Amino acid sequence: MTDTTTVSAAAPAQPAGPPIIHLDGVTREYGEPPTLALAGVDLTVVEGEFVAIVGPSGSGKSTMLNLIGTLDRPTSGTARIAGSDVGRLLDAKLSALRAYRIGFVFQQFHLADGVTTVDNVADGLIYAGVPRTERRRRAHLALERVGLGHRLDHRPSQLSGGERQRVAIARAVVGDPPLLLADEPTGNLDSVSGASIVELLHELHEAGTTIVVITHDAELAARLPRQVAIRDGRIVDDSGRVA
Amino acid sequence: MRDRTDGIEDDRRSRLLGRDILRLGTTGLRARPTRAVLSALGIAIGIAAMIAVVGISSSSQAKLQAQLSELGTNLLTVQAGKSLFGQDAALPESAVGKVGLIEGVEQVGGAATIDGAFVYRSSFIDRAQSGGLAVTAVTEGLLDVVGGTLAAGDWLNRATSGYPTVVLGSKAAERLGVATVGSVIQVGEQPFTVVGILEPIDLAPELDTSAMIGEAVAAERFGYDGKPTTVYERSTDERVGAVRVLLPRTVNPAAPEEVEVSRPSDALAAKHAADQAFTGLLLGLGSVALLVGGIGVANTMVISVLERRREIGLRRALGATRGHIRSQFLTEALLLSALGGVAGAVIGTGVTSVVAAVNDWPTAVPPEVLLAGVGATLVIGAIAGLYPAIRAARTPPTSALSG
């Protein structure tokens, strides 16, 4: 890594590695007339961090997740994810970035009904060209990692909300991506299940995965090492930023 | 901290294995089987209609071919046409004998309709009810020439043809109500004994409605002048063309243009050809059904794409390229219409074999028609799936998160 000038290395107890997310003056406009969802955001996350992006609904945090997840491109400014400039990559390159380097966890889980948990998780490797038998083997391991080794052949409808979110997390990490993005991962869960999901994310973080959690839940955010508060498309507070 | 490679140097690409494309293509069908069946039904009906039409037509063709090869195509008939002045011409007395002398002619027979003579079951029948039956003076060789067979009794021979004996065509026997030989019927107001009853004759249906008597007795009782109305001849297969050219000049050298030569097997084939025109119409209807079926598939796929925006978004988040999404939906459309095509081929073949069995035809569905039918459905599936697949690929990746 050569570009180390903007790394937020000053935060104590933060791992200081190369930046995996680097947003520089990023804006995003939607529609006609344009409404500004993100109004110039600078954010750097280095490898090994565990960050919460907090804000009320409509603050632009989902837009930010889309940009970090390379599902969307900035209107202006640059977004470098895992070293690649998202605004300049072709669809195939962006897709490869998502296939190998980013795992997604959604509030609504997005599991396929009528498909067993192991096959749902195995789908996380389908676009990496992994053959089915190998996919299922690794899905099995991922499910054990999230504590669902005994639920391999269940269907999503037979699982509790917390278990479903665990399946979704297993799918996100089955390809061992360096970056895990979670959009309101506890939003649809009761507090006990939610706490166990946060615990699981902590375990994954300790194993080396960089995790970014989007949430409007200040209590959840407070338990994470770094909080980035966002409001009206701007970062209003960042606990990891050099004071 | 695990060792991570720099993204800039990472040239791994999103990849989707061929068998996974196929597997993904079936997910939509498996998720909504009823919808899949209903939308494939349109194509199935179209293909079934076309295959049944072609199959039924070629089955009846196969039957005709079998019939023709059994009956032979070497039978020619010679009839008197019209003279140049529009009068009915007659064949000369010697016609049968002369035809027999042409090179290649193997069998020859003659038949002459006796004008003004009618057939009745008994003398008490109203004279107006002639039943449309003709009295025909025939040569002894006629039966073999036309390939006739006896249902009962015997054909006329040298002994019986000089006496008032009659052989009835199948329809004549039916209309007269004669089922056994030995009955006495009225031929031209004179009692004749029935000595034989024929089976239907495919190549000479005019004899089915005839009461056939010997030439000698015809001359004696009805003043038959020996001039035949029709001469039937069979030659070797190779000589049919040459004989056909020679016949008019041989029969009537003075006025060959007054002689009409025809080939009864052609008439059978022509009747079949008339049925084929109807086949073309049905084929047209089948292709309309196929078109409607294709539109049905396109419609189903468009709806499916709209409903599955989140799934598409999720797949994009998992690393699918636009091309992968496109192939998934295109495959689904192809499978959907192939499903219809295969079902249609099975139904069409089934309908053909039922119709063939009912009509006592051999079942004949040309394999190339089956292949063409299933191939056509793949083309339809590709066309019907293209627009929905492109739409699916354009679905923004953010769809998994929004809503």
Question: How many H/I helical runs of chain B?
Answer: 11
Which ranges of chain B are low-confidence, i.e. pLDDT below 50, for 5 or more consecutive residues? 1-9
Question: How many β strands of chain B by DSSP?
Answer: 11
* CATH topology call of chain A: Rossmann fold
Helix count, DSSP H or I runs of 4 or more residues of chain A = 7
The percentage helix of chain B is 40-55%
How many strands appear in the DSSP assignment of chain A? 10
Provide the succession of SSEs of chain A: EEEHEEHEHHHEHEHEE
| Pair with the biggest interface | A-B, 43 and 40 residues
Cα gyration radius of chain A (Å): 18 Å
Helical/strand content category of chain B? alpha+beta
| Beta fraction of chain B | 5-15%
Number of domains of chain A: 1
Largest sheet of chain A: 6 strands, mixed
* CATH 2nd-level architecture of chain A: 3-Layer(aba) Sandwich
Largest sheet of chain B: 11 strands, mixed
Ends of chain B: how far apart?
Answer: 36 Å
CATH class of chain A: Alpha Beta
Net shape of chain A: globular
What is Rg of chain B? 36 Å
* SS content category of chain A: alpha/beta
Walkthrough of the structure:
The complex is a heterodimer of chains A (243) and B (403). Chain A is α/β, with parallel strands linked by helices. Chain A has one domain: 3-Layer(aba) Sandwich (Rossmann fold). Chain A has seven helices and ten strands. Chain A has a six-stranded mixed beta sheet, sandwiched between helices. Chain A has a four-stranded antiparallel beta sheet with strand order 2-1-4-5, with helices on one face. In chain A, helix 4 (132-145) packs across helix 5 and helix 5 packs parallel to helix 6 (191-206). The longest helix of chain A is centred in the C-terminal third of the chain and has 16 residues, at 191-206. Chain A starts with 18 loop residues before the first strand and ends in a 5-residue tail after the last strand. With 403 residues, chain B is an alpha+beta fold. Helix content of chain B is 52%, strand content 14%. In chain B, strands 1, 2, 3, 4, 5, 6, 7, 8, 9, 10 and 11 form an eleven-stranded mixed beta sheet that branches. In chain B, helix 8 runs antiparallel to helix 10.
